[in-house]
Every structure is written in structure tokens, then in C-alpha cells.
Amino acid sequence: MSGCRIGLLKVALAATVAISHIPIAAAQTQAPELLERVSQITVTPAVADIGIAREINVSGHWNGCAPVGVSLGGYFLFIPTTRIVRMILPQTFAPCPLGMAYSQSTSYTPVERGKTRILVLNADGEYLGETQVDTRAANDHRPAFNITGMWYDPQSNGSGLTFVHSRSNDNAVFGTWYVYDAAGKPRWYTIQNAEWKGQGRVMEGLLYETAGVARCPLPFNNGCPASIGSLTNIGRARVTLTGDNSARVEALTAEGVLVFSSNVIRAAI
């Protein structure tokens, strides 16, 4: 009996040594890249009054059997301003391909004005993402979000905008828009006299170009601090918020003709 045990022990040790000498690349199965399960949560319409149905859409790529639906649940921890949207997964033992694209929607009709936080959870309660439903009167143009920060268009990285949005006066915004001219020289403009519209989703302001009276010492003769010499209104700027960290900005002539536009996101700094 003891000889049999010794023989089994030798076989086990040999197998262990053999496995330990397998190259790591061969020993490990190459795992596919995990795509974002919830890449986008949208609310349509983005802002509306009470009694108007809102579509909440959740989309992404699921590594396994993709959700077959989403359902609007109750309040999260009994908080009346936070609702749960839960993913509905298929009940199957059949294998599913990885990275399946999906898009599922549910409907929600607010009965009170205000902002409702929407938490998207997996079937087992795992947090996957969130958004908010903004419910307000048609004549309520308070800003939907505070837009303080740096914003840029990934397609033209190197240009951008900076906004300072007052926390004591929701309507007060000062912006700086830095771009380049046809010769590649930097130009910058300011956005002033902001006015909010579109139930707090659209901001319009006057677009100014300034010139200074500068006598810069060498070697800084290409730029130095100086007093303002002139302030010229060259048109208007319009910012349409598409989310708390995304917007479309447009440069308009004084007559309202579109000059150019950019789809910008808020820089995470």
C-alpha cells in the first residue's frame, strides 16, 4: 500500500513540474477585451413637464447573454428622488457570444417637478451607471447643470472653452473660447451676458473679441499682460447641453447665421 502511495506521489510531482514549465502565454487562455456593459444612458425628451412620458434607454455591449429588457423599479433605499432601472437578463443555459450589442428602453412619467436620479442596476443589484430625469415647467429656464470647467472637442483637441458659472446666481456665466485663425495663429474670444433658454438646456451669450495696448519687453514681445484697448462684439455663442458633461457649441453672426460648431465634452481634471 505504501509503495502505491509513493508511486502516485511521484506522478503528481511530475505533473506539477511539467505544468510549471508551460510558457505563460500557452498556459493562459487569451481573454477577449471586456467592452463597457453600459456605455450610454439617455432620457428622451431630456427635459419636460409633469405628465409627459420619458423614454429611458440603456445601451452597450454585454459579455455574455445580453439583456432582453429593462424595467423601472421602485425607489432606491426609499429615497423619493432616486428610482431604480433594473436590467432583465435571459433565463437560458445556452452559450452566448461575448460583446453582444444591445439597446433596451423603459418608460417613466414623472408626477412631480424636480430632478430624479436614475440608477441602472444589474439583476443582482450591481451598479452599472446612472442619469437623471429633469422635470420642470415650460417657462422654467434655470440652468440644467452648472457648466463650470474646461470643455473641448476631441476632433479638434487644442481648441476649447472655459466656463465660470456662478454658484450664487444660476444665470451668470463667463466663458472664454480659444481657437485658431486661417494662419494657425491663436485667437480667443469671451462669452458674456448669458441668457438661458430651452428649459435650462440652451445658453446664448454675446461673443466679444478684445485687443490690448501692449508694449512687451524682449524676449516676450509676442505677448505679455496689458490693459484692454478695444472690445468688439462679433456675434453670438450658443451652448446646447446634451448632458451634464456634453454639449454642442455654435458661433453665430449677429443676425443668427451659423459660422461653425463643435460637439464638446467636459475635461475630467
Describe, in short, the structure shown.
The protein is mainly beta and 269 residues long. It has helices at 2-20, 24-27; strands at residues 40-44, 47-48, 54-62, 69-76, 79-88, 100-108, 114-121, 127-135, 149-152, 160-165, 173-180, 186-197, 202-213, 227-243, 246-252, 258-266. 19% of the residues are buried.
Explain what the structure shows.
The protein has 269 residues and is mostly beta strands. Helix content is 9%, strand content 50%. It has two helices and 16 strands. The protein has helices spanning 2-20, 24-27, and strands spanning 40-44, 47-48, 54-62, 69-76, 79-88, 100-108, 114-121, 127-135, 149-152, 160-165, 173-180, 186-197, 202-213, 227-243, 246-252, 258-266. A hairpin with a 2-residue loop joins strand 4 and strand 5. The radius of gyration is 28 Å and the shape is elongated. The N and C termini lie far apart (70 Å). Residues 1-34 have low confidence and may be disordered.
Percent helix among the residues? under 10%
How many beta-strand runs?
16
Mean pLDDT across all amino acids: 84
Strand content: over 45%
Q: Which structural class is indicated by helix and strand composition?
A: mainly beta
- Specify the number of helices: 2
The general outline is: elongated
Low-confidence stretches: 1-34
The rounded Rg comes to 28 Å
Largest sheet properties: 8 strands, antiparallel, barrel
**Looking across the biggest beta sheet, what order are the strands in?**
9-10-11-12-13-14-15-16
Taking the alpha carbons of the first and last residues, their distance comes to 70 Å
* Tally of separate domains: 2
Q: SSE string, helix = H, strand = E?
A: HHEEEEEEEEEEEEEEEE
